[in-house]
Amino acid sequence: MTADRRKRHLKILELISTRAVRTQEELADALAADGWQVTQSSVSRDIASLRLVKVDGVYRRAPASRARDPDELRIAEGVLTAEPAGDALVVVHTPPGEANRVGIALDRLAWPEIVGTIAGDDTIFLAVSNQAAQRQVLRRLRAIAAPSG
Prior knowledge:
Layout: H1 3-18, H2 24-33, H3 40-49, E1 52-55, E2 58-61, H4 70-78, E3 81-85, E4 89-93, H5 99-109, E5 114-119, E6 123-128, H6 131-145
Antiparallel strand pairs: 1-2, 3-4, 4-6, 5-6
Helix pairs in contact: 2-3, 4-5
């Protein structure tokens, strides 16, 4: 996923969490008002990629049904992307305001590969011991956050 697409996805999640967005056109207009040049078809692909659903006529994130453990559920619902950074860092992006909740869930799971977490508003830095641990954490995060369909 490109950095621009990831930023646009984060903006879409911010928009749907702060206002009632009922149509793809409303979402495209809100993005355009914020400086994004998007088409209806790109917004449609973003909605599918983010697994958004309509609840009471407005777009929301779909509940994650695969996760069994409450902490895994928090991770499944909260992780948008997880990418390596350097040899011993994983950067996780979440919807705005969700990083702390996901970071706590990761801390509770106590994965041995993670030696520390720092959570901001929508970004979490996971310090890992080495590249092998980094690959393992990325695999685990992506498996939990993957769509269940």
